[in-house]
Amino acid sequence: MAACAGGPGSWSENILKYFLRNNQITAEDGAEILWSHAANHKSQMNEALKIWQQSERPCCSWTT
Predict the structure, then answer these.
(1) Do the Cβ atoms of 57 and 31 come closer than 8 Å?
(2) Are residues 19 and 38 in the same domain?
């Protein structure tokens, strides 16, 4: 079943609302979000995870 446009889990959902809904941030404040892009290869993903793990406030967990 596909998510409706703009609904929970859809790509057009507001990212702050997504993180709030998943209890990964406590307020609509983008400063609380650590974001990594361009993880097209496992080595890039591992580097992003390494940086994330070293951050002061990791907000979620990942497995590889």
Answers:
(1) no
(2) no
